Amino acid sequence: MTMTHHATAALLGIVLLPPLAGAAGFDCDRASTPVEHAICTDTELDALDARLADHYRAAQAGRPPAEREALRQAQRRWLAARNRCGPDRTCLREHYQQRLEALAPPRAQLTHSGPHYQLEASYPRFAGAAEAINRAVREYVQDQVDGFLARTEERLAEPEPPLGPAWSFALEGEAGHRTEWLQVIVFEGYEYDGGAHGMPLLAPLLLDLTTARPLDPAALFRTDSAWLQRLARHSRAALAERDLLGADSDWIHQGTAPVSENYQWLLPGPDGLTVIFPPYAVAPYAAGAQRVLIPYGEIDDLLARPMRAD
């Protein structure tokens, strides 16, 4: 799959500025500079580049013109400094991490503790965004927290008190992929409420920026499309090539069947749609969550609205 240089392309594509010398957005098949080659041949750098592009778009959104211009100039200065790293991948990673920290939206936190449990959740707040956007994020997190607290209270009310380690709930949200109409917030964490082990929390929030409301995964697709069948076919093909620690074909077939409950965790990104299968869905717990990236070129005809960043 062809990778693109996201951070520079985001700057140039959104603000319509002429290319900086040696820093134009590019197709990795045509990479020519040491920086371009380093990013195109390093999956970690490419991922950092994609994250930075998303953070930059989110930081630009909703700001007044003077602030957008200041942000553009700061991004230009950062690009120039990054390019001075040349092929030094350690230097490039440090520059990306520093810029990500500078562009990261402010965060809100929830903490709570009680008899036999601890809870912590954090999530981004978007400066310059409509209050309805931040309210939707806050309500989404509160729903996740309330669910854990309700389960905890129910268990604590049982005649026999819980044994073993204290229960815990940890959830952290990061701003992800963004388009003109969509903001993805990637929530990940861990929940333990007794038993042999806890469960990872994977809860992508898809926010429709035109309505400030969370989207059901089905809303990403045309109502007349066979999107479940297409995702199922691609998922089965990808999983068939993996070592899933003893999961047989029936297990995989059932977990990828084209029914909506199997496709609730969909994560749009810069290069495609990632389907997330939680532990036990298609393989044993030890195999972990399984992620299948489906390039947009394979599903563009199914989408209700474009999901590539402009």
Automatic annotation (TrEMBL):
Residues 1-23 form the signal peptide. Residues 220-296 form the DUF3298 domain. Residues 28-102 form the Lysozyme inhibitor LprI-like N-terminal domain. Pfam families: DUF3298, LprI, PdaC. Residues 117-199 form the Deacetylase PdaC domain. The keyword Kinase does not apply. It comes from the Bacteria. Keywords: Signal. PANTHER family: LIPOPROTEIN LPRI. This is DUF3298 domain-containing protein. It comes from Marichromatium bheemlicum.
